[in-house]
Amino acid sequence: MKKPASLIGNKNKFLILGCGFSGSYFAKTIKKFGCTVLTSTRSISRDPNSFVFNSENGVIPDAKIFDGVTHILSCIPPDKNGNDPVLKSLQNILKSLSLEWVGYLSTTGVYGNTKGNWVYEIDEPNPFQKRSHKRLNCEKEWIESGLPVQIFRLPGIYGPGRSTFEAIKNKKIRVISKKNQVFSRIHVADIANAIIYLLQNKNSLKFYQVINIADDEPCSQIEVIQYCYDLLGLTMPKPILFEDAKEKLSPIAQSFWMENRRVSNKLLCETLGYKLIYKNYKLGLKNCYLNSLKK
Who contacts 198 (Cβ-Cβ below 8 Å, separation ≥6)? Predict the structure, then answer.
């Protein structure tokens, strides 16, 4: 089958709103296609390709920032009231642009607790945590905005500089055991590359408004930690039972252990044909480990 010509190139201008771990990685990756890429910061930066957007302080970008924008990726979390800060401040401006595409990074937390069962995009969201209710509200705001939006639900995100290796190195690792508990995860490179794949093949693929981006193998946290210790040639500390550890965990850390689900990537990988770079935590963590050796 002949590969379609890329729909992404120097005629495109991307605005990345909220340039944290995933947003920065996406910006770096999409630049390789020759696009103009501008990234938002909350305060003035020396980077000539950045602009200030701080919805809390009412600081919105100059009108010229939006000239010729074709694509927007929003990675900004809900505000304290559970509303989307981008739409609250910029919806009228965005609606006046000739946008080809808008992406919104959400969370698989909107599915809630399925006691280890698989979750799919067709499943009715059933958020358990307050923050997940807020996320779902933002998803609805984006869908109702009338903008050409695609929502990406993400599980635990890791990558070079942000993985279990850092927790081990900084002595912040907690080896906790909880029977039948699994977590889904995704390498940051697969978030960026999956989105780019969908954009490149936009004309030949059926459009889905909500897509999970997760790897093939949800698994226990202990397996991941054990693998990291093995790569480092160190002995993993003896696991503590969750029931014994939970009192010492922060409320947010506790909350992650209160939900148990496996996130399906069948829509992305089987229906839409994206091939994961890191199909499982072993491949992804090996990449993080090799990256750390280069430093």
Answer: 150, 205, 211, 272, 274
pLDDT the model gives residue 48: 85
- pLDDT tens, 33-70? 999 999 999 888 878 889 999 988 888 999 999 999 99
Q: Which two tokens stand for residue 5?
A: 């010509």
